[in-house]
Design goal:
Layout (H helix, E strand, L loop, with lengths): L13 E9 L2 E9 L13 E3 L12 E7 L2 E6 L1 H4 L2 H12 L1
Antiparallel strand pairs: 1-2, 3-4, 4-5
Length: 96
């Protein structure tokens, strides 16, 4: 999805549970992640608009950039990560 190579599952691999809304339809699903460093809340004043980053990164999935303790954090727009077609497949599989 992000143009990155696949990685092996390991001790840091985890599942992130999220709600995704596409076309006014909300689906709860789990996303497999290589690892999670930290879960945190950011105040709205600590979030800036998504920057324009060359052609190497797919920025259509980025909601904004956060800042905490002099670190920058990329904030994904989870509703844009999954297409309606992908969510339809998840819903069909869940109903079976």
């Amino acid at each position: 999805k992000f143009g990155m190579p696949a990685t092996e599952r390991g001790v840091n691999t985890c599942i992130i549970i999220t709600e995704v809304t596409v076309d006014d339809d909300t689906t709860v699903l789990g996303c497999l992640a290589d690892s999670v460093q930290e879960v945190l809340d950011l105040a709205s004043e600590d979030i800036a608009a998504a920057p324009r980053i060359g052609t190497r990164l797919k920025t259509e999935f980025i909601r904004g950039m956060g800042k905490r303790d002099n670190r920058f954090i990329i904030i994904l727009d989870i509703d844009r990560v999954f297409s309606a077609e992908e969510l339809s497949l998840v819903q069909e599989h869940g109903e079976q």
